[in-house]
Design brief:
heterodimer, A: alpha/beta, Rossmann fold, B: 181 residues, elongated
């Protein structure tokens, strides 16, 4: 037997770590791409962009409202599942993975732009939402801005918008703190895809990163998605576009004919008080709506935290009920039927 | 050979190799990947060091300041304009290049803003405020004013300078400032 020398042990140790990392990322990728969500029906739609989008629908009362959920950057449909668990089961819920995330495939030959995601979302709505009932869009973080733009493009299809701690196209211009935070995130995003491919997901302090989701039945799924290279690649693509877009001030918010509700995380409005101005601008961009702050919540726990998701779900239920009532008032046929 | 000596001959390289592997795995530039470094309970990071201690952010790009003018209500802007151009490098610059001082000063002041953005100690905050003020004054002295545009805004951009196929990297935009103070 050869003696255990330092070079041999080091080489073996590094090779073992690399093998473990690559096996971990392969497993994470496989689970992320093939996951089905309990209680949801899984469907696919090929969009005009070329993207093949996977979405998941949980049917509520026929003819009742449908909540379409748009996840934030680095997040998939999984990020909405805990909140969906707390929603009234009479509300139909549609969650989906944007192109490149999870099992949705990006096949668009053009460079990425937010317009592509907005178009895909509208086609998911057209394919998966029952036209009989009201349709309410909910978006978290970057998904909030995408939902807002989609609502502007389909005013006859969308009856209300709920933005959960959303990004705003002017936030990097408006807030120095936001700019500095985004700058720190830039390095993480740039290095993320290669790091994940080489299995560095094992080196991330996920216990701390996902502490907000402790106790959630979806905790493990969220952690695995953070190790999947496809998640990082999709996130980097979106980040590259939206970071430059927001640094340049984005564009003015669209005017909506529907109400806009903002559900704010307490930590966001406490630590970045100027962000509240942007939330007010969101509400003013629609007809009606309000800002609701979830006490004690953070940007991520507001949808994924066991303590805060029930409060967010309750606020969304109220918004859905208001939007459905407004639709009944606006639609003479419905009013007559009622 | 005694049994103790044999054990030592096996254990010492094993411990050192483990330590070395842990150090290699802790060299990621992003601190999100510092899980192994948390095993160092001294709180100093000395036992599992990271290369950033000596060269936290090696320079590989030129720093540029761009500015644009804005109307009083910030609704209209001019295009982004360059404050000054980085001098193309020549062989003689390896020996004598006094004009480099201004570029070095810009690089240093930009580094103060860009690196360690999460640092919130009073000292860091003071350094950042000073850097913002310095850059705004630097741009204010060099911009070309236009009637109807009383405000200006600065953007910090990194650009390789040697590979023109590479897009500039947008780093940071500043708050609006008045053109005339």
């Amino acid at each position: 037997m050869k003696p255990l020398t330092f070079p041999r042990l080091t080489g073996a140790g590094l090779a073992a770590c690399l093998a473990a990392g690559v096996a971990h990322q392969a497993y994470a990728e496989l689970v992320t791409r093939t996951r089905r969500h309990a209680g949801f029906e899984r469907r696919r739609v090929r969009c005009d962009s070329g993207n093949i989008i996977t979405y998941h629908v949980r049917r509520g009362t026929p003819g009742g409202p449908t909540l379409v959920c748009e996840a934030g950057l680095m997040n998939t449909a999984t990020s909405w599942l805990l909140l969906a668990d707390f929603l009234d089961p009479s509300i139909s819920v549609l969650v989906y993975d944007r192109a490149g995330y999870g099992s949705s495939l990006r096949r668009c030959p053009e460079d990425y732009s937010l317009k592509e995601s907005v178009g895909d979302l509208l086609q998911v709505i057209a394919d998966g939402v029952d036209t009989d009932g009201p349709c309410i869009l909910a978006g978290h973080s970057l998904g909030g801005y995408i939902a807002h733009r989609a609502a502007a493009e389909a005013p006859d299809r969308v009856d209300g918008v709920v933005l959960v701690d959303p990004n705003h196209p002017r936030e990097l211009i408006h807030s120095r703190k936001q700019r500095e935070g985004a700058r720190a995130a830039n390095l993480t995003m740039k290095l993320g895809p290669w790091s994940a491919t080489l299995g560095a997901g094992l080196l991330m302090d996920k216990k701390g990163m996902f502490a907000f989701a402790a106790g959630s039945p979806h905790h493990r799924a969220l952690r695995l998605e953070g190790s999947a290279p496809s998640t990082w690649r999709a996130a980097l693509r979106e980040w590259n576009y939206s970071y430059a877009f927001m640094l340049d001030g984005g564009r003015p918010l669209d005017r909506l004919s529907t109400p806009v509700w903002v559900i704010a995380a307490e930590s966001t409005v406490r630590d970045i008080p100027e962000h509240h101005d942007l939330y007010e601008e969101y509400v003013a961009s629609g007809h009606g709506g309000s800002i609701i702050t979830v006490p004690g919540s953070t940007h991520v726990s507001v949808t994924g935290g066991m303590e805060h998701a029930p409060h967010t779900a309750k606020a969304i239920e109220q918004a859905v009920a208001d939007a459905a009532a407004r639709r009944g008032e606006d639609d003479p046929n419905r009013r007559e039927a009622a | 050979m005694s049994k103790a000596k044999t054990v030592m001959q096996q254990a010492v390289p094993a411990v050192l190799a483990g330590w070395f592997v842990a150090s290699v795995l802790s060299q990621h530039p992003d601190r999100s990947y510092d899980k192994l470094r948390k095993a160092d309970k001294t709180g100093t990071g000395i036992l599992i060091p990271n290369w950033r201690f000596f060269a936290p952010n090696p320079a590989v790009d030129d720093q540029h300041f761009l500015y644009r003018l804005a109307t009083a209500d910030k609704s209209e802007h001019t295009e982004w304009r360059e404050v000054y151009s980085i001098a193309p490098r020549k062989l003689v610059h390896a020996f004598w290049f006094p004009g480099r001082r201004i570029e070095k000063a810009i690089f240093d002041v930009a580094s103060t803003l860009l690196h360690n953005p999460g640092a919130m100690t009073p000292l860091h905050q003071e350094a950042k405020e000073g850097a913002y003020h310095l850059i705004n004054e630097f741009v204010r002295q060099r911009l070309t004013p236009e009637p109807g545009y009383p405000l200006f805004q600065v953007m910090l951009v990194r650009y390789s300078g040697y590979d023109h196929s590479e897009d500039p990297k947008y780093d940071m935009v500043f708050d609006y400032e008045e053109v005339n103070r």
